[in-house]
Every structure is written in structure tokens, then in C-alpha cells.
């Protein structure tokens, strides 16, 4: 998919619909993350509308965020407590907040799946379709929110590459981190290799590093 900007993919229209389909994982995710913050400050990459950051802050964790879409941040600010969070708009690979964090996390709502097309919103004068294709060979997921209405057709595409857990493990090792925990969900169910995963990385204990170098 070419010729699109990630910022526009989550523009005002897409951001306004983002919370229409609650995922129901905010409470479980916030409890899981709060237990690993150990009272330290947390940073969320792609904070979005605050689906996880807001309940996490309610548990007493001070949360900052980085978000590419200003429209998503605008939705966050409308929610109770949203105006109290420090959020930087821009590319999370380039922004420096100037703070140190005990926990950095990046949630994702994407799970590799077959192609589908489903109605996302149906109104009297328009319909919005969520269209998705996934190529297992390239691991590229192309998703498009297509609005068909009296005023024509509008597209809100986004394209991303899904990384296997083994790839994340390698990137972590290159950065000097080790896999500490991996589960099949926020409730710490076993990871079976299918569906979602929750992976926790950190500095390995000194005793573990010593064993690895022998």
C-alpha cells in the first residue's frame, strides 16, 4: 500500500470511531502493567485514546505517552483524566521526553488473521467498511477503513509489518535485554504460539548474565 501518511490513517473520523468497539482489556492490562511498574513512571508508545493509559493511571502509575496522531490525542483529552497526562505528538522512534521510566510498553490490537471485510459503521447516508489483508510470507498487514457515502468514497489505510515473538526476542537481545516473561494474554494464561502474546523484557539479573557468559 503506497501513497498514504500514517498520521492521516487515524484522522478525526477514524479517531472518533476508535472506541466504538470496546476491546474489554483495559482493566486486565492496567493491572498487569501496574504490577511491573513497581511504583515507577511509565511511558506508553502509541498511547492513542488512552485505552490502557487511563486505567493504569487510576491505579496510581504516572503515565506519559507518545502518539503520532493528533486526532487520537484529542479523543484522549476529552476523557476524564486525559488532560492530566503528558503526551508528545510525533514519531516514537525520534522523540525524547527527557524523563526516565521504570516501565515502557507498547500495546497492539493487531493479530495475524485471514483477509476480511466487515461493516464498521452503518448510517443512513454512508457505510464504513473495515477491510484487512495479511500476507504470511512478508508478514505485512494492510488495513483500510473505507467510507462509502453520498459524498463519495474515502480511504483511511494503514500498513504495518507484524513481528513474530522470536523476532522481538532477537531485537531485545541486540538492545541488551532479555525475555523475562511471556503469556498468552493479560491474565497470564500460557502462550501456545497462537493468538496474542504479552512479552516482558528487561535487564537480566547479574547471576543470569554470568551464566550466559560461561
UniProtKB/TrEMBL annotation:
InterPro entries: Methyltransf_25, SAM-dependent_MTases_sf. GO terms for molecular function: methyltransferase activity. Residues 1-23 are annotated as: Disordered. Pfam families: Methyltransf_25. GO terms for biological process: methylation. Keywords: Methyltransferase, Transferase. Residues 43-109 form the Methyltransferase domain. It comes from the Bacteria. This is Methyltransferase domain-containing protein.
